[in-house]
# Entry
Amino acid sequence: MSTPLEPTMVETIKGYDAEKRFKYLVKEVVTNREIWILIDEHGCVMLNTDDEDCVPVWPNKEFAEAWATGEWDTCKAEAISINKWHSRWTHGLEDDGLAIVVFPNENEDGLVIFPDELDFELKQQAKKSK
# Structure
């Protein structure tokens, strides 16, 4: 379970570029052992890029909830344990041909990667953290 972020820290992190937000997400997910998605009555929220259908993920509840506005105001932030992510989500997303948009900001700007790439980065960070 993660500790709530201070509002000043949230604002600082919002200013990060996509690459820096990706690195932050990897560290936070490994430290807190959870990754955040948004869900609605149909399941996981999806985004579409020109090339890919994507599942957006966030490192902290605060950032996921910040996206639950406008057309997504009925969505809820949900944590997925890192173990469940590795055992079910990575393969499930790959099987469905879905990509991941990492920690998108208000402009829907985020790094688009494949599930196995995120899985690899999370495992590498876990090795460093030991």
In short: The CA atoms of residues 24 and 44 lie 22 Å apart.
